Amino acid sequence: MSIIVQKDDQVLRLTAKPVPLESITFPEIQKLLREMSQALAAEADGVALAAPQVGKSWRIFIVSGKIIDEEKPPADLVFINPKIKKASRVKAEMEEGCLSVRWIYGHVKRATRVTVEAYDESGKKFTHHGSGLLAQIFQHEMDHLDGTLFIDKADNLQEIKPEDIQ
Questions:
Q1: Catalytic center residues
Q2: What is the mean pLDDT of the chain?
Q3: Sheet holding 77-87, edge to edge
Q4: What 8-state DSSP symbol labels residue 165?
Q5: Domains contained in the chain, CATH given
Q6: 55/117 Cα distance (integer angstroms)
Q7: What does residue 134 show for φ and ψ, rounded to 5 degrees?
Q8: 11-28 confidence digits (pLDDT tens)
Q9: How many helices and strands (H and E) does the chain possess?
Q10: Per-residue pLDDT tens for 53-105?
Q11: Closest alpha carbon to 78 in 136, 35, 112
Q12: Is residue 155 predicted with pLDDT exceeding 90?
C-alpha cells in the first residue's frame, strides 16, 4: 500500500514550511528523505515526489535519478527549501499527471527552462538547471510546496486507467 496521499488530503493544500537549515541532517529529515525515495521507487511511473505527498508539510522534493540516467540511475536528487531563481519566458503546453491525483492527466503551460536553488541532503546549497521534462518537474513539485495541484491549472483533463495504456 502506498504512503502517497491523494488529492482530497488537506496537507496537499497547505503552503509547506521551510526546513530549518540546522535540521537538514537531523534524523527526522533524513528519515523523511528515505521514506520519500522508497515511496517514489515503488511507483513505476513516478519521476518526482514532494514531502506534502507523503503527508509532511516541509519544503522538500526529490527527483528520481532515472530522469538523469535511465541506464545507471544515480541517487535521487534532493531539493530542500527550493526556490525558482530563473524561468524562461518561453512556455510550452505539456501533458502532466501526478502520483497524488492518480490516473488523471491534463495539459499545463510551463516554462521550458528553469533554474532552481536549494539545499541537498547534507545541507549544501546548490543550483540546478533544467529544461524540458526536468523544468516541468521542478515547476510541478514547487506547486506542491505551495499547495497547488496540477489539476488546478490543467486543461483537457481526462482519466486514463493503467489498463487503458497500450
A1: 141
A2: 94
A3: 48-50, 60-63, 77-87, 113-119, 125-131
A4: -
A5: 10-164 (3.90.45.10)
A6: 24
A7: -65, -40
A8: 999 999 999 999 999 999
A9: 2, 8
A10: 999 999 999 999 988 776 777 789 999 999 999 999 999 999 999 999 999 99
A11: 35
A12: yes
